[in-house]
Design a protein that fits this description.
By secondary structure, this protein is of the alpha+beta class. The chain has helices at about 1-15, 20-25, 75-80, 140-145, 150-160; strands at about 65, 90-100, 105-110, 115-120, 130-135. It has a domain at about 65-160: Nuclear Transport Factor 2, Chain: A (Roll). The radius of gyration is 22 Å and the shape is globular.
Length: about 160
């Protein structure tokens, strides 16, 4: 009896691993250098590319603060309404934010009759674009590319820590 149970446990856990949305964020085996560098040669660090084209990575901005240059509470509410995420007649009030880190914004809206709605947006304060909205906004994009201050609010808030 122990054999089938152990086999079942192995089969159930064999599917665990990196979530699909994060697999692309890791460099593939082919992207890594296949040829070892000679041990007697001096190692010189490569200069950064002057083109500025780089893979988006999370900033180290540790704290999100009130947005001095926007977006306003009304802009965030309008952004969410514009995506048809709220009923037209919903009573909406901003509970938290907008808080900013770099060009990312985090806002919590209270909607009468519904759970609080978290909103993550980014871009200029005058023209934000919606990244995600809902009761759990810790998406792959937020986890991988948002600044630490936004990621902490979006991901730690939804995990209850």
């Amino acid at each position: 009896m122990v054999g089938p149970v152990a086999l079942l446990a192995v089969l159930l856990t064999s599917g665990c691993g990196t979530p699909p949305e994060l697999r692309d964020a890791q460099p593939s085996q082919s992207a890594r250098s296949a040829s070892p560098s000679p041990t007697d040669a001096a190692t010189t660090p490569a200069a950064p590319s002057p083109t500025g084209a780089s893979t988006p990575t999370a900033s180290s901005t540790p704290v999100a603060v009130r947005c001095p240059a926007g977006p306003s509470s009304q802009q965030v509410t309008d952004l969410v309404r514009g995506q048809d995420l709220l009923p037209a007649d919903a009573q909406v009030r901003v509970l938290t934010g907008p808080l900013c880190a770099d060009d990312w914004h985090y806002t919590v809206l209270t909607v009468t009759g519904y759970e609080p709605l978290q909103v993550v947006s980014r871009g200029s304060g005058t023209a934000p674009r919606l990244v995600t909205a809902g009761t759990d906004v810790c998406t792959a994009e937020v986890r991988v590319t948002s600044p630490t201050g936004i990621r902490t609010l979006a991901c730690d808030a939804s995990s209850g820590t």
